[in-house]
Batch of 4 targets.
Target 1
Amino acid sequence: MAEQFYQRLIDKYEPMTEAAFLTLMSVRQPVKSGDLPEKIATLTHGQLQLGLGTLFTNLHAMTHDYLITEHVDADDQHTYEITGSGEAVLAAECRRLALLHQICTDEQVL
């Protein structure tokens, strides 16, 4: 049953946009909402940025789809963290990207 649930989510999100991928990657450890842009900049070595609208749209959708949990503390600080479902979707996307990378390598594009 869990596999079917995960597969439905994978089918919904795959292929994943860069914004969705970076959003999921950035919340693999709990992170406060205000720290997310810096976390994404660190992940991408400063090469990619997400606009706040894009970032929070992804966070909202992924929270709704149970890929991410959101915790709000007494000071109204929002902290996000990936769920098991989110890890399954992220792993599927990483496998897809690895295949694309292998094709580039095989074709001597890299």
Note: The mean pLDDT is 93.
Target 2
Amino acid sequence: MAEDEIEIDTDDLQRRMDGALASLRTEFASLRTGRASAQMLDPVMVEAYGQPTPINQVGTVNVPEPRMVTINVWDKSMVGKVEKAIRESGLGINPQLNGTIIMLPIPELNEERRRELTKVAAQYAEHARVAIRNVRRDGMDQIKKAKAQGHMSEDDQKLWEAEVQEMTDAHIARVDDALEHKQKEIMQV
């Protein structure tokens, strides 16, 4: 072993691949499955005080029953803006006002809409796979660069490449498992 051999930062690669999985989970949480969840409102932004603001920063989001989400808006002047943001969000939910409380009844999903949502979930999963493969490519580039600069033997190169590939395969498998679970959840009546 030469003294100037370098280590590949697998912790950074692991962290970045885990980040892609966390992002996927966030996107999956925003998909409606016919059951109420506070996370389904995470992507909705309200124009509040001159800037886009998440709904959970202008009111309290609750799930009092399986098919109902309520938002208790703290500032009365914001109720109309929150209602408008929900209507324009594409969630397919019709808000109902009750003073400063906005009620969001979650309608049953029909078969066609469930199939559309499974396709959206598959797209989210593919984006996560691409992100993980991009991290893999970066890791492989680091290894090739170290080998080209003479900091790594060919045997070490193969070991590092195998480790990065193993990490990639494990993360891709976790994406596939998450997708399968989400699709079952969406199709469940």
Note: The chain has two domains: 10-28+110-187, 35-105.
Target 3
Amino acid sequence: MSADADGGDRDGGAEATAPCDRCEMSIPVDAAQCPVCGYRPGGYSPRLLRAGEVAFAVAIFGSILIFVGGVMRLSLGVPTDILAQVAVVTPYTAGISGFFLYYLRKKRRATPTDSRIFGRDS
């Protein structure tokens, strides 16, 4: 058996495996689809998930802009209007949108061995 310069193993390059969530056969952890049963997690279109990610990213960006604008108006002594009143809730909007953005990114990148991501420990 030979070793690389960093001490790794060249001959024993065994791929990491885990059981498929559906058929329980051992498959590579980075497989997009189970090579045994054909299971592909999610059931949603990657295009739809990407659109959701973009929508939540825009919501976060818009929330930050509204918050900064409202705070600046208040700090400059401009009379409060709807922008300043809405600015109070935008941190919550940004936080909730951030959560859903994170969830959709995880869902889009899920593999057949990722049941632990969504709380379904086998």
Note: Residues 1-12 have pLDDT under 50 and may be disordered.
Target 4
Amino acid sequence: MPELPEVEALAHHLREHAVGRTVTRIDITSLSVLKTVTPQWTDLHGRPVTATARHGKHLDLVVDDELHLIVHLARAGWLRWSDSLSPVPPKPGRGPLALRVHLGGPGFDLTEAGTKKGLAVWIVRDPAEVPSIARLGPDALALDRAGLEKLFAGRTSRLKTVLTDQSVLAGIGNAYSDEIMHAAKLSPYATAGKLSAEALDRLAEAIESVLTSAVQRSVGQDAARLKGEKRSGLRVHGRAGLPCPVCGDTVREISFADKAFQYCATCQTGGKALADRRLSRLLK
């Protein structure tokens, strides 16, 4: 799933390649991806792209300083830029293509792999009209140590849950939450509201360093290379069974019905393995 660094990089890519170009046509091949009725997608035709932005994990293409094409790529969605799109309209319901934006000759496709569809597009006059944007907490890169302490105060949920709750903190997903907790040497099952001052210091520093480093690696990359760039920078997420690059212990995994997360017991839980069920306590 694209998270804050990848969406920031996509916004930068479109800023460099799409801003100043005119939307000549939009092709919808999957009507279910479009979550709004008015304005219509044809209202974007003939208007210039004037800016791009990011709201948490949402990508915002600003058209004519008036309309916003908002994209949430969900788990399996992606943006594919092309310097020369085919002028032939794509056939609906064929393959992973959901929506195509023509910008003269170049443009981009929004695609989604797999059968579980979550890719969503809104066309609005104000980003706050998108319910998932209206519910966003503060951006993860805009929050300092004091703000983090205030945000976590009194929360009884586990740290993993809080870090990935977009209504609490916007932009962090499954992968970077694993990386942040590993860098901060904190258990995924730690209670967010009970972190010590020292633990909050490490967490604030880890959020800043992990996300900033990922943004720096990602911005400027071609959209097609961003997924590989993300994987190459991960130390524990997606590396179950491999040695931790810090201590050499084997990276462990907790699996749920539709996702999993990874951690290092030596670095994060005092050498104790976490039981592989959602509400487990540390094994004794």
Note: The chain has two domains: 4-134, 140-268.
